[in-house]
Amino acid sequence: MQTHFLSKTVTDPCRFCAARRSGFCGHLDGCSLDILSERATVQSYAEGVTLIRQDEACERVGIISRGLFKTVMLFESGDERLLQVLRHGQLIGLPSGAKSPFSWEAATPVEVCWMSQTAWDAFLAGHPQRYGAYLDALQAQLLSLQASVANMRGRGALQRVAFWILDEVSLCPGEGQQGFHIELKRRDLASLLDMSPETLCRSLRQLHAERVISLDASDRVKVLDRAKLRLIARWQDDRIAAGLQSRRLDPGTSAGSGNRKPASASCGTSSSKPGWTGDVFAGMIGPGSGGRRN
User: Fold this and answer.
1) Looking at the structure, do residues 16 and 141 belong to the same domain, yes or no?
2) CA dist., res. 204 & res. 158, Å (int)
3) Cβ–Cβ contacts within 10 Å for residue 144, how many?
4) CA distance 73 to 80
5) Starting at the edge strand that comes first in sequence, how are the strands of the sheet with 60-66 ordered?
6) From CA 237, how far away is CA 26, in angstroms rounded?
7) Is the distance from CB of 223 to CB of 179 less than 8 angstroms?
8) S-S: 27 plus which of 43, 133, 135, 179, CB 3.0-4.6 Å?
9) CA distance 277 to 153
10) What is the DSSP string of 199-226?
């Protein structure tokens, strides 16, 4: 595998790292962070570099310290599908040198903290807390991927774009009051949201025309009407929480009432109860993005 990177000499890569308090590193104590800093090597890569190719063995493990990575699957037809976007604190590579089912590529200029598989295994073996942190980080990345697929199912193109904007805003300081920069290339973002770049642009322009968002530039978004954006996205978390609370307070469903309602009436299988149908599961999962229908 050929990669292009800029060497970087860092005496203490952990001290000023953005990932120090997030993801895998956020679960480590000071002693473990010091050991990690001593054993790891930091490398910077340009946008577009493939660090691990599909079906290639993962001979090392990386922690993203800056920038965005994308996992991309190549199909026999030649089509590529962007599966997930990874941020600082998240992990690159698979355990025990397993072959990767997808490629790991730099979506923006990135910085990675690397350890060989042997050094990584020795580091984890040094303290049970490190194994726990590793499992937590892997589980969080898997759940994020699953949630992104589930949250995009059943939504049209405009709804998926609106949902993604709300998801990005939730990651911004101050809930994105000043707007946020779209770091992904349009082609990558369209692939992530399972649509064509043309459909993505039309959806953004429609939200801008309806004054739901403001496109201050082609790559900068500011939310103007969050309530309307939530309605468009079918962002159901508040309604589900209220519904669950009302069901708890309903005497007809209490354990001690001795008069339970029929399951068909309380579970929302009828189309007369839209708040308890298809996208309830998506709303309960929470924010995410992913999932090609348009």
Assistant:
1) yes
2) 8
3) 20
4) 6
5) 5-7, 41-45, 110-116, 60-66, 91-92
6) 27
7) yes
8) 133
9) 13
10) HHHHHHHHHHHTTSEEEEETTEEEES-H
Residue linked to tokens 């699953």: 146
Whether residue 34 contacts residue 76, with contact meaning beta carbons closer than 8 Å, is answered with no
Quick one: tokens of 108? 């923006």
pLDDT, tens only, 180-239 = 999 999 999 999 999 999 999 999 999 999 999 999 877 899 999 999 999 999 987 555
DSSP H helices, 12-153, are 30-39, 117-125, 128-152
The secondary structure element, H or E, covering residue 62 is: strand 60-66
How many structural domains compose the chain?
A: 2
Q: Which residue has the tokens 């490629």?
A: 103
Do 63 and 187 lie in one domain? The reply is no
Question: pLDDT, tens digit, for every residue of 162-173?
Answer: 999 999 998 877
pLDDT digits (tens, 9 = 90+) for 16-43: 777 778 889 988 998 999 999 899 999 9
Structural domain for 191, as ranges: 153-245+272-294
Residue 229 within a domain:
yes
CB atoms within 10 A of CB 239: 16
One domain, residues 131 and 16: yes
Q: What is the pTM of this model?
A: 0.73
Close Cβ partners of 129 (under 8 Å, ≥ 6 residues apart): 27, 28, 29, 32
Instruction: Please report which residue ranges of 174-287 form alpha helices under DSSP H.
Output: 186-192, 197-209, 226-233, 237-249, 263-266, 280-285
Please classify residue 224 by burial: count the beta carbons closer than 10 Å to its beta carbon, then call 0-12 exposed, 13-18 middle and 19+ buried: middle
User: Which residues are 170's β-sheet partners?
Assistant: none
Distance, CA of 11 to CA of 34 (rounded, Å): 11
Are 116 and 197 in the same domain?
no
DSSP H helices in 88-127:
117-125
Distance CA 42, CA 63 (A): 9
